[in-house]
Design a protein that fits this description.
The chain is 14% helix and 32% strand. With 100 residues, the chain is an alpha+beta fold. A hairpin with a 5-residue loop joins strand 6 and strand 7 (76-83). The chain is globular.
Length: 100
């Protein structure tokens, strides 16, 4: 696990961070203000923009979103690419920039 700062962010967040990495508040503000969020709540953020669409195992293709969650200690953690409203990472989403 590592801590991701704005300086460490190389443009593609999913290539910089892994699920479980902590994230600077500055990145959360940028994600929140870049476009309308898909879902936001107290200590929870899924920035707008679908990351990928994958099967949910029930015969439906569902969108996944980059997901951030604030811990009780007030630290933001990247949870990975998750279905809307969830915090479970789906690694099979691949990298849409590489066509996976």
């Amino acid at each position: 696990m590592k801590h991701i700062t704005k300086e460490a962010w190389n443009g593609f967040f999913n290539r910089t961070a892994e699920p479980g990495d902590t994230v600077d508040q500055e990145i959360i503000h940028e994600m929140l203000n870049a476009q309308p969020p898909a879902r936001v709540g107290d200590g929870y953020l899924q920035p707008g923009g679908v990351f990928a669409r994958i099967s949910d195992g029930k015969g439906r293709n569902r969108p996944t979103y980059m997901t951030f969650q604030k811990t009780q200690a007030g630290v933001w953690v990247y949870r990975g690419t998750c279905f809307l409203g969830e915090t479970t990472h789906h690694p099979e989403t691949g990298d849409p920039w590489n066509g996976n």
